[in-house]
């Protein structure tokens, strides 16, 4: 088998195109147990996601998890599945289209915007191959994770690097490491909360919930916890909140190991028992609604809070297609594109043919 994939047809002296690839986590193809099994197998086989010895994890994954979890997860996905498909995929695709439109309005018509999923389809490799076939020679990779983590942002770049290993004629690449404190992102979050409060009134407390990671990740040097804390602090400052008016927690704990604390669900249970009447929850670690926000937070955590004695629970949706978020995304990407936006097309070699480019005699 050849080491490199065949190169797309190339015209010497053709335009050098620029592209943006938005990448989110991934989603099963359908809310069914077989589809979830395929998705979870790919996701949980990533050594970036689960950092325990491979042989031990293989036994757990194939002996227990893939035989028990797919059906349970499929039932959860079925509760939030949209007519167009998975919420995460639907929102990510819409974000890409809106960003494409806004960049065009700003005069950047030549920039192509595409989207991909780290796990499942459309994969990072599939998206990069399409962009390359369309003539993209400069590609900005944008993992849609505001806070950097090895298990998310770095895993995206692993998939990019794997694709590069099979590519003979590499495009120029850049990537966005994180945007946890980007002014446009924070402003869009704050505006979404203010809009929600204007419609529904203010709660007794705002819960800012991030996806959890094993506590060990912090000990090993992963900056995720610190970046979550900064995002939460900046959001609270933008909203004018005192420290007793909000809390930062972590959700989606899996297994028996200690994860980043405090945990979201136990916090809500405690608040309910203490007689808190209303709480609002926002999940800034996700820029698009997904299973973890629509089912885990808006359904499961709401049930827990009300059962513990709380009276009113409101979930504040992710940024999704908010115009201020798309504007912030346009600012973020154009800042990273830099001179790519104004760089002129490369001139063809003298004579414009491959023989002259290689220095062959006339």
Automatic annotation (TrEMBL):
<comment type="function">
    <text>Catalyzes the ferrous insertion into protoporphyrin IX.</text>
</comment>
<keyword id="KW-0963">Cytoplasm</keyword>
<dbReference type="InterPro" id="IPR033644">
    <property type="entry name" value="Ferrochelatase_C"/>
</dbReference>
<keyword id="KW-0479">Metal-binding</keyword>
<dbReference type="InterPro" id="IPR033659">
    <property type="entry name" value="Ferrochelatase_N"/>
</dbReference>
<feature type="binding site">
    <location>
        <position position="211"/>
    </location>
    <ligand>
        <name>Fe(2+)</name>
    </ligand>
</feature>
<comment type="pathway">
    <text>Porphyrin-containing compound metabolism; protoheme biosynthesis; protoheme from protoporphyrin-IX: step 1/1.</text>
</comment>
<dbReference type="InterPro" id="IPR001015">
    <property type="entry name" value="Ferrochelatase"/>
</dbReference>
<comment type="similarity">
    <text>Belongs to the ferrochelatase family.</text>
</comment>
<feature type="binding site">
    <location>
        <position position="292"/>
    </location>
    <ligand>
        <name>Fe(2+)</name>
    </ligand>
</feature>
<dbReference type="GO" id="GO:0004325">
    <property type="term" value="F:ferrochelatase activity"/>
</dbReference>
<dbReference type="GO" id="GO:0005737">
    <property type="term" value="C:cytoplasm"/>
</dbReference>
<dbReference type="GO" id="GO:0006783">
    <property type="term" value="P:heme biosynthetic process"/>
</dbReference>
<dbReference type="InterPro" id="IPR019772">
    <property type="entry name" value="Ferrochelatase_AS"/>
</dbReference>
<dbReference type="GO" id="GO:0046872">
    <property type="term" value="F:metal ion binding"/>
</dbReference>
<keyword id="KW-0408">Iron</keyword>
<keyword id="KW-0456">Lyase</keyword>
<protein>
    <recommendedName>
        <fullName>Ferrochelatase</fullName>
        <ecNumber>4.98.1.1</ecNumber>
    </recommendedName>
</protein>
<keyword id="KW-0627">Porphyrin biosynthesis</keyword>
<dbReference type="Pfam" id="PF00762">
    <property type="entry name" value="Ferrochelatase"/>
</dbReference>
<keyword id="KW-0350">Heme biosynthesis</keyword>
């Amino acid at each position: 088998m050849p080491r490199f994939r065949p190169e797309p047809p190339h015209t010497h002296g053709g335009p050098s195109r620029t592209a943006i690839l938005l990448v989110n986590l991934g989603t099963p193809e359908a809310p069914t147990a077989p589809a979830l099994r395929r998705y979870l197998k790919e996701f949980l086989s990533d050594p970036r996601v689960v950092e325990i010895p491979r042989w031990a994890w293989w036994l757990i994954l194939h002996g227990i998890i893939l035989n028990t979890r797919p059906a349970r997860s499929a039932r959860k996905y079925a509760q939030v599945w949209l007519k167009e498909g998975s919420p995460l995929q639907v929102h990510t695709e819409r974000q890409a289209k809106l960003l494409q439109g806004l960049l065009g309005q700003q005069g950047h018509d030549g920039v192509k915007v595409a989207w991909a999923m780290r796990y499942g389809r459309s994969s990072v490799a599939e998206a990069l191959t399409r962009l390359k076939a369309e003539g993209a020679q400069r590609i900005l990779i944008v993992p849609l994770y505001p806070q950097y983590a090895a298990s998310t942002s770095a895993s995206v770049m692993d998939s990019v690097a794997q694709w590069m290993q099979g590519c003979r004629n590499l495009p120029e690449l850049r990537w966005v490491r994180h945007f946890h404190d980007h002014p446009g992102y924070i402003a869009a979050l704050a505006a979404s909360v203010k809009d929600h409060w204007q419609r529904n009134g203010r709660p007794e407390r705002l819960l800012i919930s991030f996806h959890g990671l094993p506590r060990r990740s912090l000990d090993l040097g992963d900056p995720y916890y610190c970046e979550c804390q900064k995002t939460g602090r900046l959001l609270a400052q933008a909203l004018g909140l005192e420290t007793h008016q909000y809390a930062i927690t972590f959700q989606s704990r899996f297994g028996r190991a200690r994860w980043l604390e405090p945990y979201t669900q136990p916090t809500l249970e405690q608040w309910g028992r203490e007689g808190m009447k209303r709480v609002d929850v926002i999940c800034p670690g996700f820029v698009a609604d997904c299973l973890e926000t629509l089912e885990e937070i808006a359904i499961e955590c709401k049930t827990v809070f009300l059962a513990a004695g709380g009276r009113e629970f409101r979930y504040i949706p992710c940024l999704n297609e908010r115009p201020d978020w798309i504007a912030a995304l346009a600012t973020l990407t154009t800042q990273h594109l830099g001179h790519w936006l104004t760089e002129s097309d490369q001139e063809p070699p003298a004579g414009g043919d491959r023989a002259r480019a290689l220095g062959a005699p006339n």
